[in-house]
Amino acid sequence: MQDKVLELSNVNAYYKDGKVRKQILNDISFTLYEGEIVGLVGESGSGKTTLCKCILGLLKDYEGNIMHYTNRPQMVFQDPFSSLNPRKTIGWILEEPLKIQGKRSKEERRKKAEEMLELVHLPKEFYSRYPRELSGGQRQRVSIALALITGTKFVLADEPLSALDVTVQAQIIQLLKELQEKERISYLFVSHDLDVVDMICDRVLYLKDGVVREIC
Ligand SMILES: Nc1ncnc2c1ncn2[C@@H]1O[C@H](COP(=O)(O)OP(=O)(O)OP(=O)(O)O)[C@@H](O)[C@H]1O
What we know:
Layout: E1 4-17, E2 20-33, E3 37-41, H1 48-56, E4 62-68, E5 74-76, H2 90-101, H3 106-119, H4 136-148, E6 154-158, H5 166-183, E7 186-191, H6 194-200, E8 203-208, E9 211-214
Parallel strand pairs: 3-7, 3-8, 5-6, 6-7
Antiparallel strand pairs: 1-2, 1-4, 8-9
Helix pairs in contact: 2-3, 3-4, 4-5
This protein binds adenosine-5'-triphosphate.
Adenosine-5'-triphosphate binds at residues 15, 17, 24, 42, 44-50.
């Protein structure tokens, strides 16, 4: 039996719309296991972001139970052009979460950042480069390295391929799958694109009008 990473039980979530408390998610239950890629699809407005906010602890108005069995998830965002600080080098960006943790020396942080570059198949020399000097696919590799650098095993990926062209998408899919296998990373993979989800996900959750059902 695989280890659980995340378990949602009977989650209802709400937003305030003026004075009215509007229900957005309705009785959502599912489990994500270690080393598994679960797709979350649904039309615009179906509640995907709301569900992610609940999982990340950003939306407090919910009922039900959300259990994390590992560290909190790290996000990989849609747009690698705006998610990395343009004024800082890749090395600085990668080391920032380690600085916040405060556990490693300067040399150890650099070594870890270079290891992470290697893990996502970027040259060590990228340590001194700025995001503007990288392609979209390379930046998305940095975003993935950044999500994983503190040792998290659960990534919440919000449309991580939609800003990339098809060839680069295929390369990033290959990387995500490689990390799934090698590092036992679990992903909740939010997407509009059923073809992409079909290619990468072990299971797919379909969200419609705040209700989730598994479609394969
Ligand atoms: N802050 C908010 N206050 C009130 N209602 C909200 C708020 N954010 C989202 N909603 C409503 O909640 C519903 C679900 O929105 P959500 O952003 O979760 O959908 P989504 O599936 O992520 O859409 P998209 O694919 O377009 O990002 C929508 O009807 C939206 O209008």
